[in-house]
Design brief:
With 1215 residues, the chain is α/β, with parallel strands linked by helices. It has 6 domains: 10-236, 3-Layer(aba) Sandwich (Rossmann fold); 319-433, ANL, C-terminal domain (GMP Synthetase, Chain A, domain 3); 451-535, Non-ribosomal Peptide Synthetase Peptidyl Carrier Protein, Chain A (Orthogonal Bundle); 558-762, NAD(P)-binding Rossmann-like Domain (Rossmann fold), CATH 3.40.50.720; 779-907 and 915-930, no CATH class; 968-1208, 3-Layer(aba) Sandwich (Rossmann fold), CATH 3.40.50.720. 38% of the residues lie in helices and 17% in strands. The strands form 11 sheets. The chain has an 8-stranded mixed sheet with strand order 2-1-6-5-7-8-9-10. Strand 8 (174-178), helix 9 and strand 9 (198-205) form a beta-alpha-beta unit.
Length: 1215
């Protein structure tokens, strides 16, 4: 006999319960509670217009449930008797009673009515909580829920966050699992986590309702150890549960087949889909009742002979076939989960034909992985080590070829089931991850709340590339890119942990699902959190400087300090930073210790070590200090300073406690905009965790602080100065300095308790004094570089700039670490005498970077107009720095100088590099190499040693980056076109030029342009320009050109013969004058240039002659017959000269331009020739600068390299 009276419909059953318990609570949601009587009134009001004038009968539809079809949603029409019989069967398995609290979220519409038929209370779980593993468990615990339902995927996510779930949910008596197959691994974990909860597996569909239900504990005990899946229970209506073969015949017990379901719980069919209904609901030929139907589930199943339990083995068609082999994915998935540190897995086939491969998508297990192998995956998505393990468990064809790491398997946002269709393309996912370990690597997140940083976190949750997110636009929805409720909860956690430790409301993220919306939600959450802390900052600071009593030494006596030179193990933080990288290098070079580097990760795992080492190496390579020998003495540990035990697992942390002798704490989150609250965790709590470890290990601590813990002072603060607590909020105005001040107090308090600890305050860092390697995001560097670009420097009265070389600070920390003096806890490493900004820019003037002076206000206005509004481009980093926050004049004047009188004894012979022209030259060379400067600095001026190429008495050393600097070049045809372009290009290279042409006015105008170019682009020697009126047809004028050039500029090094004419003429039109002009200029002109220059070049065994020929000198063009002949003459002449002078040191280059935008195109008068052969083709032709660049390229080649011919043409007009 059933629990319910199934002769009644839902309305009658509810009203029966209403009469029994009218005042009992029926429904609870976040907005209100309703008794049974109140709910009845609400329902009557809502349903009034549905019912019209007659009651709903038993055979009327209870509702239309929309199910997801393959191509479109399907409306499943269910009569009243179906849910009544369904609930009756469920109550027979696990009954409810008054006082039960049933939480409904998954399949809410179906689940919400069931408790109301037994006097229990339905708790409506809000959407923003449904798939948030943390908030969901909090709600279940707070409301003392006795029963709920989850999908296996949701349960797996909950167990990943709550390994001891039963302790959090002591009231939970029953847990239903539905919607997916339950693996035996998940079942065992659930049973272990919920020892006092009955866990029920239920197989159902909206078309059939409950088909089978069973207790997982009981069913699991009947299975062999290697079973991949749990059964769903005994069939609830065995007589109408059929497993059929392809011919619709029943299979034998134990044999797999397709599951069909008949009986009295079937839906009527699909609303308005007659053909679809006919395919899914077929005649039940096994039933005795007329017109009986059965439903085709599409699932593969079998009846286990020993127990009679129904087991779902997959979907029809779900069997994978690869090259003739049949593979059951579940078998492979179980082997992976059983043997590797994987919590969830999906195995699918990808590709077609012979390219078809087995792909495993794995989710790392963040819990207890004892006894399981760490899965390692290379950059190509292959895992040889996994194959070695699996070969003893699976046939060779069942081992996946490709492996993809996901944060979670994709699920449908409504049902929560694993959605195999939304698994990412394996090759794309592998390329995006590009890792050699089993975790999806996190790019170093941008900790500023903006579109970029939120996009990075989206990418991590969605397992995609940040660029993919950004390219979709700021209005793209998280759900459009594959997100769902579980991933949204993961995103909320990532945002909180990455961007400052504040809680981001999941509901707000769901309500504003776009990228821009998430930025707004995050900013609101951060600002609200920060405001609460900032509102009472003095009280917060006072509390934060307290060190708990547990921070103490085991012995009452102080611990002896350990010098770095005697340490066996050194723990270093901040090694991926600017100072930290150099510090690691110096510790490696100057100690014999093993160096353990903590590398910051938001969620540290042991298998992230390869990513940590890669991050460390990238930084060291960028700084220019990487040495492969470091691998022998460096260990890396992924960690998070603001986490308990530094985010390390217990055994790793304990090992570190046992090993470490000295801690050098150099890590900090630097942000001059964030308030104290936003930086508190990494900078204050991180230091507290470092001290906790030091007390446990009796380690010596060298804490790297900043001059920012003191207010501005140009006279300098002595080492003994400590800012009083009361003055910190008003004199230290940014959160970074406030957190560093608090961290200092913690270190000094630890020293008072006997822990050997020093505070090392550092000044404003500049580049390496020997290599120039510079902090990429340095504000002072940006100001200097941008001033050079403008040619104008700001002049602020009494503005001094501190530039303390990073290598001095790094070596100073090592020196202090070897200097034991318990009486001095604070040391200073900075420039006690900062340089006057006027002197600094004077030094730059001598290095070839002249600047005018103007006020700060005018400088900012000029920069905004000329640089700030320009697009940054590849080399716009210094522009971007100032765009992100232009400092105020007050900020620049607020220099904090540190006196170092008490520190010098600890430094020994170490001297701080002086900021002079030599140091600035080193920095400028590095800035140039970075692409921030357009030219290298000149040599540092020394005692005059005579004129170097006639230039200002400076000795000019050869510069391999500017091989033409100081060379003397003669250019004919320089008044326009290619000749003028060559002159400009050579001046940019630092050469001196002689301009020759007939039009003196044009030459003089060009001379002024070149002077400006030289000022902007010149080096140690200004390019000088000599102008000479020259007609190349007149040899005397050409001879005069050569002589006056030698007298004015020095010995000639380069000849560029550009003078020439070109006329379109038809031969039959006999344009004799134009023919003769062509021969005179193009042929005779070249001979005049050669005859006057060769006697000057050959005796010097050096020189380079470049002559403009044409592609018409290689192929005759109709309409240009005489011009082509003249260029064939040029080619023959140059070739002969090249062969005859080989071995003399002279180089000869023929440049053969195609169609170029010059005045030559407008010289012709033969209209027939122009119309027939001179009309544009529509192709983009060459600019004169294109040809000039080719010439400069040839001239810049080493002396032994000859560019004999250069054919340069428009891409679409080849000869």
């Amino acid at each position: 006999m059933g629990v319910l009276d199934t002769s009644l419909d839902l309305d009658a059953l509810f009203r029966r319960q209403l009469k029994a318990t009218p005042d009992a609570i029926a429904l609870v949601d976040p907005e209100a509670n309703y008794t049974y009587a109140q709910l009845d009134a609400k329902v009557d009001s809502l349903a009034f217009y549905f019912r019209s004038h007659h009651a709903v009968g038993r055979d009327s539809l209870v509702g239309i449930l929309m199910g997801r079809g393959a191509d479109y949603p399907k409306g499943i029409a269910n009569p009243h008797y179906a849910p009544v019989r369904s609930y009756d069967l469920r109550f027979a398995v696990n009954d409810l009673q008054a006082g039960d609290r049933v939480a409904c979220n998954v399949y809410f519409v179906w689940e919400m009515l069931r408790p109301l038929l037994r006097g229990a209370t339905t708790y409506a779980i809000p959407d923003h909580t449904s798939y948030d593993p943390v908030k969901l468990v909090e709600l279940l615990a707070d409301q003392k829920i006795t029963e709920t339902l989850m999908t296996p995927t949701l349960l797996a996510a909950v167990l990943a966050r709550h390994h001891n779930l039963g302790a959090k949910l002591p009231a939970l008596r029953s847990l239903w699992l539905n919607g997916e197959v339950v693996t035996t691994d998940l079942a065992r974990r659930a049973i272990s986590a919920l020892p006092n909860t009955r866990i029920l597996n239920c197989y159902s569909a909206s078309e059939t309702h409950e088909v089978a239900c069973g207790d997982l504990r009981q069913m699991l005990s009947t299975l062999p150890d290697d079973a991949p899946y749990c059964p769903v229970g005994p069939p609830m209506d065995p007589a109408h549960t059929y497993i059929l073969d392809e011919d619709q015949n029943p299979v034998q017990p134990g044999e797999p087949g397709e599951l069909f379901v008949g009986g009295g719980l079937l839906a009527r069919g699909y609303l308005n889909l007659v053909e679809t209904t006919a395919k899914a609901f077929t005649p039940d030929t096994f039933a005795s009742r007329p017109n009986a139907r059965k439903y085709r589930t599409g699932d593969l199943a079998r009846i286990i002979p020993e127990s009679g339990l129904l087991e779902i083995t997959g979907r029809v068609g779900g069997m994978i076939k690869i090259r003739g082999y049949s593979i059951v994915p579940g078998t492979v998935e179980k082997a992976i989960v059983d043997n590797f540190d994987v919590s969830n897995c999906a195995v699918v086939a990808h590709g077609e034909g012979l390219e078809r491969q087995l792909v495993a998508y794995v989710v790392p297990d963040e819990g207890d992985t004892a006894g399981r192998t760490v899965l390692t995956i290379d950059d190509n998505g292959h895992s040889p080590s996994a194959r070695q393990v699996l070969v003893s468990h699976l046939a060779h064809y069942m081992i996946p070829t490709l492996w993809v790491v996901l944060h979670s398997l994709p699920t449908h946002e409504v049902s929560g089931k694993v959605d195999l269709k939304n698994l990412p393309n394996p090759r794309a996912a592998i390329a995006a991850a590009s890792g050699t370990h089993s975790r999806a690597r996190s790019p170093a997140p941008d900790e500023t709340v903006n579109l970029k940083s939120i996009a990075q976190l989206w990418a991590l949750s969605l397992n995609t590339n940040p660029n993919t997110v950004l390219e979709a636009g700021k209005n793209v929805s998280f759900f459009d890119l594959g997100g769902h409720s579980l991933l949204l909860a993961d995103l909320a956690t990532r945002i909180s942990k990455t961007l400052g430790g504040f809680t981001v409301p999941l509901g707000d993220l769901a309500g504003n699902p776009t990228l821009a919306g998430h930025v707004r939600v995050t900013l609101n959450a951060r600002d609200g959190h920060n405001a609460a802390v900032q509102a009472d900052l003095p009280t917060v600071l006072r509390a934060d400087i307290e060190l708990a009593p547990e921070f103490k030494l085991d012995s009452p006596e102080p611990v002896a300090a350990c010098p770095l030179s005697q340490a066996k193990t050194i723990l270093l933080t901040g090694a991926t930073g600017f100072l930290g990288g150099f510090l690691l290098h110096d510790l490696f070079k100057n100690t014999s210790a093993r160096i353990v580097c903590l590398i910051r990760f938001n969620a540290p795992y042991r298998t992230d070590r390869s990513a940590a080492m890669a991050r460390l190496r990238r930084n060291m390579l960028d700084l220019g200090v990487w040495d492969h020998a470091m691998l022998d003495r460096i260990d890396v540990l992924p960690a998070n300073l603001s986490r308990n035990r530094l985010g390390l697992v217990p055994e790793v942390y304990d090992d570190l406690v046992e090993r470490v002798d000295v801690v050098v704490h150099c890590a900090a989150q630097v942000n001059l905009v964030y308030p104290y609250a936003a930086l508190r965790d990494p900078n204050v709590e991180g230091t507290r965790e470092i001290l906790r470890l030091a007390f446990l290990s009796n380690a010596t601590v060298q804490y790297v602080s900043t001059n920012g813990v003191l207010p501005p002072s140009q006279t300098g603060w002595p080492e003994s100065t400590i800012m009083p607590l009361e003055e910190v909020p008003e004199k230290l105005l940014d959160g970074y300095c406030q957190t560093k001040w608090v961290a200092e107090q913690l270190v000094l308090e630890a020293a008072k308790r006997g822990l050997p600890a020093n505070v090392i305050r550092i000044g404003t860092l500049s580049g390496h004094s020997e290599t120039g390697s510079t902090n990429t995001y340095d504000l002072i560097t940006a100001l200097i570089v941008e001033s050079v670009h403008l040619g104008v420097a700001p002049e602020i009265p009494n503005w001094h700039i501190e530039m303390t070389a990073v290598d001095f600070v790094s070596r100073g920390i090592v020196a202090i670490g070897n200097h034991i003096d318990a009486s001095q806890p604070i040391y200073h490493l900075g420039d006690s005498e900062p340089i006057d900004c006027r002197l600094l820019f004077q030094h730059l003037d001598t290095l070839g970077y002249p600047t005018k002076r103007t006020s700060w206000k005018s400088w900012v206005a000029l920069w905004n107009e000329t640089r700030g509004s320009a697009k940054g481009g590849d080399h716009g980093l210094t522009v971007d720095i100032l765009r992100s926050g232009m400092p105020s004049e007050e900020f620049l004047l607020g220099i904090i100088a540190l006196k170092d009188d008490a520190t010098r004894a600890a430094l020994g012979d170490l001297q701080r590099p002086k900021v002079d022209a030599k140091l600035l030259q080193t920095y400028a060379r590095h800035w140039y190499a970075r692409g921030w400067m357009q030219r290298q600095p000149s040599s540092v001026p020394s005692t005059p040693s005579g004129e170097a190429n006639g230039a200002n008495g400076l000795a000019l050393a050869f510069d391999p980056d500017f091989p033409l600097r100081g060379k003397v070049a003669v250019i004919t045809g320089a008044s326009s076109g290619i000749g003028a372009a060559v002159a400009k290009a050579l001046v940019r290279e630092g050469a001196h030029v002689a301009l020759a042409a007939r039009r003196v006015e044009a030459l003089e105008k060009l001379q002024k342009e070149l002077a400006e170019i030289s000022r902007a682009h010149g080096g140690p020697v200004r390019s000088r320009v000599h102008v000479h009126k020259t007609d190349v047809v007149d040899r005397a004028q050409v001879e005069s050109l050569m002589q006056t050039t030698t007298d004015a500029l020095g010995a000639i090094d380069i000849i560029v013969s550009c003078a020439g004419v070109m006329y379109f003429t038809m031969m039959h039109n006999v344009q004799v004058g134009e023919w003769e002009q062509t021969v005179d200029v193009n042929c005779k002109g070249l001979l005049n240039v050669l005859s006057t220059s060769l006697p000057r070049l050959l005796p010097r065994s050096t020189g380079h002659i470049v002559a403009i020929s044409s592609d018409a000198g290689r192929k005759v063009f109709p309409g240009l017959g005489v011009y082509s002949a003249s260029k064939f003459f040029v080619e023959a002449t140059l070739q002969s000269l090249r062969l005859e002078t080989a071995g003399t040191g002279l180089r000869v280059t023929s440049v053969q331009p195609g169609n170029t935008a010059t005045e030559l195109l407008g010289m012709s008068s033969d209209q027939e020739a122009i119309k027939k052969y001179g009309e544009p083709t529509g192709a983009k032709i060459l600019d004169t600068s294109d040809v000039a660049n080719a010439i400069v390229y040839a001239l810049r080649q080493p002396a032994h390299v000859a560019m004999n011919e250069i054919l340069i043409e428009p891409r679409d007009e080849p000869i």
